[in-house]
């Protein structure tokens, strides 16, 4: 083998080695690029997976929170509705009640004996009390003196344990016109007596035996109360509907406040409506005009 052949073989060997080295380097670079791309893709997919998991978790939390708030609104609507139903029942009972029972109730019952008080005032608009005025209670038929006293420094007087029957109030003082008034003693007291300078007798119109609550007036009052109770109960029904709609918070609370006057079973109905209103105030952000979208 001559020198030329040896040189050619060495050149060919070097070329093959160089080619293998370049191929190895290219393969290495390619593998690195692929690995980096895979790493970038995996990181991007991981971030997206985390975001999706976070979104789903938050959506679940919001769903549970919305569910709890919806339950509060349902509870408030139920309480207002039940209270209004009780009010409707009470109104129906009032409308169908016996007026004689109403007349016999403590609302219209007049005590056999009462304490009555009053005041004697100076005429002319100054409103000062007149002292030492003689106040007599007379039998309305015989003018017999049943009780007597004089006013104090402020012009006030008070009779205790007076029979609640028609009698005459006789008011007399030196330098003033005498006043007489027929009345029936009541705990509410006597209308102020105006003392005017002069002489003579002034008879004032007062309460007579025929005054007071009659069957007709009791029926009228019972009807008015019953109708008012029924109307306010209907307003309560509308309030319950407004709660379920969750549109207007203030209007809903206003309607529920009116429903309090339905007086279902005296206190139970209004108490339930009041609790419903408190729950509404807690969950008011559920209404469109307060915290809705």
Could you give the topology of this structure?
Blueprint: H1 3-95, H2 99-104, E1 113-122, E2 134-139, E3 145-150, E4 156-163, E5 167-172, E6 178-183, E7 193-195, E8 201-204, H3 215-245, H4 249-259, H5 268-282
Parallel strand pairs: 1-7, 6-8
Antiparallel strand pairs: 1-4, 2-3, 2-5, 5-6
Helix pairs in contact: 1-3, 1-5, 3-4, 4-5
Brief description of this entry?
With 293 residues, this protein is an alpha/beta fold.
What kind of oligomer do you see? single chain
How is the biggest beta sheet arranged? 5 strands, mixed
Q: Write down the overall geometry.
A: rod-shaped
User: Which range does the strand content fall in?
Assistant: 15-25%
Radius of gyration: 47 Å
Low-confidence stretches: none
Number of helices: 5
Helix amount: 40-55%
Compute the number of strand runs.
8
Task: List the helices and strands in order.
Answer: HHEEEEEEEEHHH
Distance between the termini: 95 Å
| Biggest sheet, spatial arrangement of strands | 3-2-5-6-8
């Amino acid at each position: 083998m001559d020198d030329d052949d040896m040189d050619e073989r060495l050149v060919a060997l070097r070329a093959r080695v160089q080619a293998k080295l370049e191929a190895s380097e290219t393969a290495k670079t390619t593998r690195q690029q692929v690995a980096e791309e895979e790493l970038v893709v995996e990181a991007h997919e991981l971030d997206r997976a985390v975001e999706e998991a976070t979104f789903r978790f938050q959506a679940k939390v919001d769903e549970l929170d919305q569910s709890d708030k919806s339950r509060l609104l349902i509870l408030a609507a139920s309480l207002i509705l039940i209270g209004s139903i009780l009010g409707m029942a009470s109104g129906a009972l009032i409308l169908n009640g016996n007026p004689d029972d109403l007349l016999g109730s403590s609302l219209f019952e007049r005590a056999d004996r009462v304490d009555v008080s009053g005041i004697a005032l100076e005429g002319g608009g100054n409103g000062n009390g007149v002292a030492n005025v003689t106040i007599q209670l007379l039998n309305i038929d015989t003018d017999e003196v049943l009780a007597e006293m004089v006013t104090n420094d402020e012009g006030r007087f008070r009779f205790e344990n007076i029979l609640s029957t028609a009698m005459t109030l006789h008011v007399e003082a030196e330098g003033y016109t005498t006043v007489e008034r027929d009345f029936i003693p009541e705990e509410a007291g006597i209308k102020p007596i105006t003392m005017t300078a002069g002489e003579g007798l002034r008879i004032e119109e007062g309460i007579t035996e025929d005054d007071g609550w009659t069957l007709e007036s009791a029926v009228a009052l019972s009807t008015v109360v019953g109708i008012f109770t029924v109307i306010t109960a209907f307003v309560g029904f509308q309030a319950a509907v407004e709660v379920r709609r969750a549109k207007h918070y203030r209007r809903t609370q206003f309607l529920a406040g009116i429903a309090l006057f339905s007086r279902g079973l005296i206190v139970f109905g209004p108490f339930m409506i009041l609790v419903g209103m408190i729950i509404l105030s807690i969950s008011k952000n559920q209404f469109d005009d307060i915290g809705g979208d």
